[in-house]
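Researcher: We're reviewing a set of sequences before deciding which ones to prioritize for further study. For each one, I'd like a predicted 3D structure that I can look through quickly. This is 4-hydroxybenzoate 3-monooxygenase. If possible, include the structure in token form so it fits the rest of the review sheet.
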Amino acid sequence: MTESQNSRALRESADVIVLGAGPAGLVLGNLLHAAGIDCVLLERASRTHVQTRARAGFLAPNTGRILDRHGLADGLHRRGLRHGTCEFRTEDGRFRLDYGSLGQGGQQHHVYPQQNLVTDLLTHYLGRGGRIRFQTEALAVREADGTRPYVTTREPDGRPTRWSARYVAGCDGRHGAARRSLPPGAVRRHHDHGVTWLGLLAEAPPSLDAVGYAIHDRGFAGHMARTADVTRYYLQWQRGIPADAWPEQRIWDELDDRMRAADHGPLHRGTLLERGIFDLTCDVIEPLRHGSLFLAGDAASLLAPAAAKGTNLAVLEAELLAGALTDALTRGDTAGLDRYSDQCLAHIWRAQEFTGWMTRLLHTAPGGDQDAGSFFHAALRRSRLASLRTSRIHQEWFAENYVGV
Ligand code: RFL
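Model: Here's the predicted structure for 4-hydroxybenzoate 3-monooxygenase, in token form for your review sheet.
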């Protein structure tokens, strides 16, 4: 915003401005509003768009507990499914790992599509009088190093607005305004796992009663239930090839091959509702606090979807940030805000480590495992799987990390 635009801009304010209405922003907004904090959510997309964006589906038990604690888990309990088994299919056959009966007391995932969670959180927030502006794009966070930061926005009618606050929560994902506004001291630690997925959403019931991980010399294939009628599939994919390069028939044939349907039973085929390309890259911003600006969710750290951790971290961070902001604004106690970054980074790095381990477990080297140079990679992967199949301690470790954040 230029000087003259700035002086013509509409002026609005709230004690806390939350950028983004994904899982992180909506949990944070709900908790702040319930605590009586003056807050507003600014969301670039329309309400319909955020309520229909299909992404995550596997929610950790701790995410269920957080939502329960704050009366936000009704939909999850009414419509969600439970999942406690994964099935690995390899050249050596298949084995099932009942992770739901291992680890600390045996814990299962909730299977609940992210768009349903977002819809529940939004309905709850609006039903209690929470303030949100859709189609309002945050352009930049300014003066975050002072006590009166502000956010410049473009309103639905195109008018510039200046939102003043005491604190700004950047929950606007990896390409949001919060990340763009970080001071030069912020470090982005980035890693490319070198793997690409074609993500598919099929109008078809799940084909197995477990998360399916198939390891094949042409690449990984994955199967994840979403609802009784919709299933997510993934194919390891050559980077640079567009998502629509293959007709549906070829995709199903390839899924059949890699999932070894001839040996273990057919896949339920159906229309492919969505295709997307995902490069398995990840990053972490350090620290997560820059003066009055705090990052949470994908804005704080991006995880490759191989271990289904992103939404779970987003909800965990939102709860921590809500508590810390409430203490600061109601009691003047800023200790929670001072701790926020270190607390979250400990969880983030643990999730990144496990995600990296899963990524190496599941994938052939880009280009396939057949060339001689990849033999070493393939042998390590096979040995890792053999250990997971046979070692109870390894299975316990897997279960704890797989369901935990
Ligand atoms: P979101 O959900 O991206 O929401 C950010 C919101 O900010 C808005 N926004 C802006 N608003 C205002 N001004 C701007 N300048 C803005 N820029 C952006 C956006 O419109 C959006 O509404 O981030 P949040 O809240 O941090 O939540 C993160 C999760 O969405 C993400 O980590 C997960 O979806 C990752 N993930 C999974 N996580 C799990 O825990 N379990 C899973 O099973 C799982 N499966 C997945 C996944 C991610 C996937 N993709 C998309 C790679 C499966 C897939 C295919």
